[in-house]
Amino acid sequence: METPEGRRRLRFHDYAELYEVPGLYERLFYEELECTSPETVCGLLDDVLTIRGDTPDALRVLDVGAGNGMVAEQLVELGAASVVGVDILEEAAMAAARDRPDVYDDYHVVDLTAPEPETDAALRKEHFTCLTTVAALGYGDIPPLAFAQAFDYVDDGGLVAFTIKERFVHPREDESGFSTLLRELHEAGRMETLVEHRYQHRLSVNGDPLHYVAYIAEKSGGATIADRI
Fold first, then answer.
1. Is the dihedral of CA 14, 18, 19, 25 positive or negative?
2. Directed axis angle between helix 37-52 and helix 70-78, to 10°?
3. Per-residue pLDDT tens for 15-71?
4. C-beta separation of 86 from 142 below 8 A
5. Is the Cβ–Cβ distance between 19 and 89 less than 8 Å?
6. Which of 182, 205, 159 lies closest to 59 in space, CA to CA?
7. Chain centroid to CA 105: how far?
8. Cα dihedral sign, 111-117-122-123
9. Dmax of the chain from CA atoms?
10. What is the 8-class DSSP label of residue 126?
């Protein structure tokens, strides 16, 4: 990347540095590498709402790995009643406030593997009816424990919409722990998959397609999951 101080080298997962430059994240991932994940997930979520006879204005969404608000923007356009963002990076919150100041009702900078008591209490009071996390699972950015904690903030009967690289849902290929967590959620009756959709998430730097799996699921009642991990 060229800056007034000279050329600067950034890696794909240097999110804090990417968010510092207005428009850079979108240009890299959505214009150059043709990322489709926000539109794909929100489209599938809309389809499920239609099938269930529900309307988007019933959605009180917890958007985890919120970044600068690209998924939240889609959710607001869909008609969600409220969207609360969560990200571990202060730079992400600053970028969201700069780039999309009207999409979040609230935004928390928090490590969901060890949330502060006041943040935990605030999120539990929201009674979320939907969880979204897009293109952030499986690489350590959002580990299984963080996903489980977010899952526990959603009311029973709520929807869980997420994407994950396809190898992370296959036990023989997965080193992230997500295949185990998802299996346990299903076997315990805590989550019922409504939609499972393989799609092209984006292109690699070499132009090869990278495939993810998008899930829309319904949360069922039972003991909290995060305490068991």
1. negative
2. 30
3. 888 889 898 988 888 888 889 999 999 999 999 999 999 999 999 999 999 999 999
4. no
5. yes
6. 159
7. 17
8. positive
9. 55
10. T
Distance CA 118, CA 90 (A): 17
d(CA 90, CA 179): 29
E strands, the chain, are 2-3, 6-7, 60-64, 82-87, 106-109, 128-137, 154-165, 191-203, 209-219
Taking CA atoms, 213 is separated from 88, 135, 191, in Å, by 23, 10, 16
C-alpha–C-alpha distance, residues 79 and 121, integer Å: 26
Angstrom distance (rounded) from CA 28 to CA 12: 9
Distance from C-alpha of 181 to C-alpha of 174, rounded to nearest angstrom: 11
Which residue is it, tokens 């923007």?
A: 73
pLDDT (tens digit, 9 = 90+) per residue, 92-123? 999 999 999 999 999 999 999 999 999 999 99
85 DSSP β-pair partners: 63, 107
